[in-house]
Amino acid sequence: MEPEQQCTKCGRKYPWGQAQCPFCSSSEGYLWPQRRDTFLLMIFVLLVLMFVTTGFTVRVYHEVESGLAQDWYTRGEEDLRAGRPQDALTDFRTSLSYSHDNEQHQLRLAQALILTGHREKTGTEARTYLLNLLEHEPGNGTVNLELARLAARDHAVSDALRFYHGAIYGEWADNAIVKRRAARLELVQFLLDFGQNDSARAELIALAADLPPDPVLQTKVGTLLLRVAGYDDASKLFRLALTEDPRMPTALAGAGECYFKNRDYAQAERYLTRALQRDPHLEHAAAMRDTAQAVLNLDPFNRRLGNLERARRAALAFDSALTRLQHCASQKGIDLKAAGSDPLQALYAETTDLQPRAKERYLRSDSALLSQVMDAAFGIELASAHACGEPKGEDLALLLMAQEQGGPRQ
Prior knowledge:
The chain is mostly helical. The chain has helices spanning 22-81, 85-99, 103-115, 119-136, 141-153, 157-168, 176-193, 197-208, 215-227, 231-244, 249-261, 265-278, 283-298, 307-332, 343-354, 360-363, 367-388, 393-405; strands spanning 4-6, 13-15.
């Protein structure tokens, strides 16, 4: 039987010569891996709990921050609607401090800066925000429009044109067609204010090509075309408006003015009369109607007239022109009877020689004399308008006829 020895720890016996008790060493070797796995598991669970807690805390913080940003943004919107841009400015600054780089909040802050009206103080800051937004979204219609307004306010024509076109051809979140049309109308008004009528006319023609069947809008664009002498394009719009609303006084007056400018005085008189029947307070239309009627009543070259009526009109035109010459000379302090080099004095000398024959009884049977008398009347009206400005009444009618005839006939 092999000699044994007893373990001092567990009390068991094991063969003599072994360095340690096999029973104690195997138990310790078994328990240590179990303790290590438990310890690692506890550390893992603790880390997971810390991660979840941190994530929850961060999420709650961001939700609170987002809520505060939205609350201040809402207050800013309310202040803008109430006409308090200065208060809105503070609200949007605060909202942006919570929302950081929120683009919508930056845009509204820039708009509030513009509305405060402090050009030097706020214009640069607003432009900075807008240009930053434009860098991220070059096709943003709203941002381009606000930059265009800033440029227009600073009289920066080239920048205004660039940004207005960016708005016209840009992207809009809603009602894109309506907002692009509104941006183009703003551009037209800007160009008109700066006297760039040719550019304004080009924009209006582009706008007119894509209008809905809205008589109010058609009349508005047509009226703007009248300001840039786009009479033919304006006439088309007024006729379209009258197709939708035949009784619309402003469209009737606009169509009448187009005919008037194109020297179709019969049509002008017809449309202007209809406009005044609908709205007697259209003073400009009334003045044009009276002038158109005067032209129709004074023109001796109407082929439907008989010789007696031709002679009467020519004699009346000559007398009216002579009176206009005398009034103009008096206004300028010119003695018509004295010898001098003034054009009005030369005209008076010529008409004085012609005056005895500028009577109805001579003009009835002498068409050449009638033409000579009317040439004299036209020459007087043109010279008097040059010296004393545009006349009124019958003299204005004669001046328009003179311009249509190209002055006295050779």
